[in-house]
């Protein structure tokens, strides 16, 4: 067993990032890219692991993107653990950590916004109207900076994955988008950097979300009316102890169009609910 | 002198375009890109000529982009001369003509818009509020499709050139943007595909625009108040025979910010005016 410490290249500017990636491409070596906001957990490391199967080299970015937070949200307190993250990435076999500053990403004079409809309509947008504009601009920038062959995103943020897939197709960004199944703890809770905000009692409640969604998905597949399943699942989450429920929704799995009844193509059930001041999201196939 | 007919490759899909460009890049040969709406005139051919100085290969696109026309504008009647254009491009030394269809560019489900401020504020936007959103989306797509090393745009559409330069920086599109000085006829009229709409009498009037701008630029450089120069130049154009004047404006040449007085860095004077149902624009350094 080789005990040598794995090495991790670092870049803080698009020029440095591109120089390394161009070198790999010049040697006909493929590159996979995993954009993150840091505070890495096993879900992120699963993305890096999958990235190693997709390409010869793996680049991970860590950037807590201010444009996807509203003024009242947790930009200031979002967990930042850069050196710990770097160690985890090196151990996971990531080749390069790209960590630009906010002023590198959004210099004075920045003048461009991206607005999405289609899969960005409803769900998260009803509750975080700024969110996908912020995601779209940062992902467009990061993908164009990295020039990777493939980029991986978790299915945990399922609407985000659909929005990014649409964005990349619409802007003709030459990077293939791959969604990776959600990593869960032993009791099915979707891993999230925001789980760090939860007390033990809140974690017990949070762990009921995935079971409620699995039961709802089974009911939808069995032909129960979608409206009833959505409403009853939301009510059950309140009984479980969630403070409030932003949505429980069954959608076309690709377009995220609302469904009046079950369809003979992939469906997805998505939910967002609050525990104290923490907002959790989860989803699964239906 | 070699009399063999020059050959011109053709592509209609992003995949075909990228295959050719990737082949050139694999051979370490650089690529320059000239996006156009066709109806080519000597101004476009000057762009191709300059492109040949910038890179080993030249790609020209012809696409009359519907998203940059408002409903009442001339999308339906915009001149389309594809086979004549192809002959001109081959003679000018262009290597590849890329002519996608509207449904290739904007397939069903297209869901992305780009909104610009900064250099997009005012001037054209005051009169064509849809215009730069349409330009931004099509240019982002075309540049990402072509993956060229450099792309060339005419200074005739000066505000557009500044908007595209900003867009490409903001989205980190890996293509260098080069502006090319406006090509003019023997009497100084800026070449434009829309000049084809003008009668002989209108052409006589149109040819006075560049002289008025040159005189205005000289006055600004000499220290005359900018407000007065703008107003008096607009009034002179009406006397010359223009039906109406959308704007005559002196701006910072890079940011296009309005100026209260002359500054010690590059300035630009820009104008838009109508002759019958035809709208002409022009600009020059001040």
TrEMBL record, chains A, B:
Which CDD domains is this protein grouped with? PanC
Kindly state a single biological-process term from the GO annotations of this entry.
Answer: pantothenate biosynthetic process
Q: Matching InterPro entries, A to Z? A: Pantoate_ligase, Pantoate_ligase_C, Rossmann-like_a/b/a_fold
GO CC annotation, single: cytosol
Task: Give any extra note attached to this record.
Answer: The reaction proceeds by a bi uni uni bi ping pong mechanism.
Q: What does this protein do?
A: Catalyzes the condensation of pantoate with beta-alanine in an ATP-dependent reaction via a pantoyl-adenylate intermediate.
- Its protein name is Pantothenate synthetase
Q: Which organism is it from?
A: Brevundimonas halotolerans
- The gene behind this protein is panC
């Amino acid at each position: 067993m080789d005990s040598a410490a794995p090495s991790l290249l670092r870049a803080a500017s698009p020029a440095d990032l591109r120089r390394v990636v161009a070198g790999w491409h010049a040697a006909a070596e493929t590159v996979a890219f995993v954009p993150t906001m840091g505070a890495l957990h096993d879900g992120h490391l699963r993305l890096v692991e999958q990235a190693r199967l997709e390409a010869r080299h793996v680049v991970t970015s860590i950037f807590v993107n201010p444009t996807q937070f509203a003024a009242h949200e947790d930009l200031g307190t979002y967990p930042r653990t850069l050196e710990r993250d770097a160690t985890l990435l090196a151990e996971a076999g990531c080749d390069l950590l790209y960590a630009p500053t906010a002023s590198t990403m959004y210099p004075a004079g920045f003048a461009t916004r991206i607005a999405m409809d289609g899969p960005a309509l409803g769900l998260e947008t009803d509750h975080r109207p700024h969110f996908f504009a912020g995601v779209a601009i940062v992902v467009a920038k990061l993908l164009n900076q990295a020039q990777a062959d493939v980029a991986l995103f978790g299915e945990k943020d399922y609407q985000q994955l659909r929005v990014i897939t649409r964005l990349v197709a619409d802007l003709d960004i030459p990077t293939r988008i791959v969604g990776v199944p959600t990593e869960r703890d032993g009791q099915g809770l979707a891993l999230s950097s925001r789980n760090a905000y939860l007390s033990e009692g809140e974690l017990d409640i949070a762990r009921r979300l995935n079971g409620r969604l699995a039961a709802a998905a089974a009911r939808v597949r069995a032909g129960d009316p979608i409206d009833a399943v959505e409403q009853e699942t939301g009510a059950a989450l309140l009984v479980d102890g969630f403070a409030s429920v932003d949505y429980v929704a069954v959608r076309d799995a690709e377009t995220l169009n609302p469904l009046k009844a079950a369809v003979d193509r992939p469906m997805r059930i998505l939910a967002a609910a609050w525990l104290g001041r923490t907002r959790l999201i989860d989803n699964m196939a239906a």
